[in-house]
Design brief:
Blueprint lengths: L1 H14 L8 E2 L2 E2 L1 H8 L2 E4 L17 H11 L3 E6 L11 H17 L4 E5 L4 E2 L9 H6 L29 E2 L6 H17 L3 E6 H4 L7 H17 L6 E5 L6 E2 L2 E2 L4 E4 L3 E2 L7 E2 L15 E2 L5 E2 L4 E4 L24 H6 L3 H18 L3 E3 L1 E6 L10 E3 L14 H9 L2
Parallel strand pairs: 3-4, 3-19, 4-5, 5-8, 8-9, 12-17, 17-18
Antiparallel strand pairs: 1-2, 6-7, 10-11, 13-14, 15-16, 19-20
Length: 409
């Protein structure tokens, strides 16, 4: 009798649909697997950035962050490491080793988790003190030299975006070989660290002299070739901010997925409230360009992430300006942080449901940690979504809301 029951159970199980496991290898990633990771994406800016001199870095309470990732079941840790300035940290073995240690803690709980690094549109004169490793020359097919990076060689010849971020801090020009050398060093360092995704920031700024994405296409191909032997699973997920809807050349997307700010519109008759709207300013909703992806599959619209962006505070905080990227005078994460706790929780549910109803290609990157800018007497400089506790006293109690959104029936 028991034997018959077992046989019947086996037959029943055979009729059930197979559960597809997320797959990423040196040949690429399927759309289903990509969306699996994007549907569990969080922004945890500089989670992996730990001060080599013994401090916890810009975001303390790392143990609680490890717990949060495990509790939420997060699969994609966005902007986990990057340098906006402070480039010399990347030449410090202790800085990288501490980042590896945090990765090991998370992967001990869940080896599927993907960490995303970020490579931004900013470079400073400090790079002149960093030796160029031999593997960076080799990745670009250049003769190996024994020298340091050359900031001057990364600048646009016509002076575009020179000192754009302040004296001695400019936007690198992707058409310059020295810029490509610097960017392959950044990408390669993060891949060798264990990151399996890289956000490339404002590609249009760095592509100031790049017609039809030609320089970017050639460079990103070399990044992908490097990933085949140097990344954790032989593939690297690439995305960038794409105000024009994507990086598509000759019908092929250069990116695995797109990303962009939420572009929250102020509700002008309800002070400090915000909403989402298709077609508002340069919002990406229903505008993500398709084509053949780097993994070989094609789509009419590339999957994308939307995030709470940070870029500062306007000269008119508290004013509703529907012609500005600021929401009530603040960047998106600062605006969000300034809301009452219940409204934050309510608004996150609203944004998640609105996106699902209005563009199924988009995924909301849940906010966990990010820089903010406020005007309060004791200004917070970091937003933390963790549950407030002695282990993270700065937490703003959004963790359970994220958990409920992701795990609701």
């Amino acid at each position: 009798m028991i034997q018959k029951a077992v046989v019947s159970l086996i037959c029943l199980m055979a009729l059930l649909p197979a559960v597809a496991q997320p797959v990423m290898d040196s040949t690429g990633i399927s759309r289903k697997s990509l969306e699996y990771f994007l549907s569990r994406a969080v922004t945890m800016a500089e989670f992996l950035a730990v001060d080599p001199y013994g401090n916890d870095g810009p975001y303390p309470y790392k143990d609680d962050d490890v717990r949060l990732i495990r509790h939420l079941g997060a699969k994609f840790i966005g902007r986990a490491i990057y340098r906006w300035g402070h480039e010399t940290d990347l030449a410090n073995p202790d800085f990288l080793e501490k980042a590896k240690g945090l990765m090991r803690k998370v992967h001990a709980d869940d080896p599927e988790v993907i960490f995303q690094a970020a490579v931004f549109e900013a470079v400073s004169e400090k790079v002149d003190s960093i030796p160029v490793p031999g593997w960076a020359f080799e990745a670009l097919g250049l003769p190996v030299e024994k020298r340091r990076f050359r900031y001057a060689g990364m600048l646009n010849k016509d002076g575009k975006f020179l000192n754009h971020w302040g004296k001695g801090r400019s936007v690198p020009d992707i058409t310059r070989t020295e810029s490509q050398l610097w960017l392959i060093y950044l990408c390669g360092t993060y891949m060798r660290l264990g990151c399996e995704a890289i956000h490339i920031g404002q590609v249009s700024l760095m592509g100031m002299a790049d017609r039809d994405w030609a320089a970017w296409a050639a460079f990103l191909q070399k990044v992908r070739q490097f990933a085949k032997t140097q990344s954790r699973r032989g593939w690297i997920l690439l995305d960038a901010h794409t105000p024009d809807g994507g990086m598509v050349a000759n019908g092929k997307s250069l990116l695995d997925f797109n990303s962009f700010p939420l572009r929250i519109k102020p509700v002008v008759d309800k002070p400090m409230e915000g909403m989402l709207q298709v077609g508002y300013l340069d919002a990406l909703y229903r505008r993500s360009k398709g084509g053949q992806t780097p993994s070989g599959w094609s789509c009419a619209s590339l999957p994308y992430l939307v995030e709470f962006d940070n870029f500062g505070i306007s000269r008119t905080p508290g004013v509703a300006d529907t012609a500005s990227h600021y929401i009530w005078g603040y960047d998106e994460i600062s605006w969000f942080c300034l809301q009452p706790e219940k409204y934050r929780q309510q608004w996150l549910r609203y944004a998640y449901d609105w996106l699902k109803a209005n563009d199924g290609n988009g995924f909301l990157q849940m906010p966990v940690s990010r820089v903010i800018t406020t005007q309060s007497r004791k200004p917070m400089t970091r937003y933390r979504g963790n549950t407030r506790s002695p282990q993270c006293p700065e937490g703003l109690n959004l963790e359970e809301t994220i958990y409920q959104i992701w795990h609701k029936p």
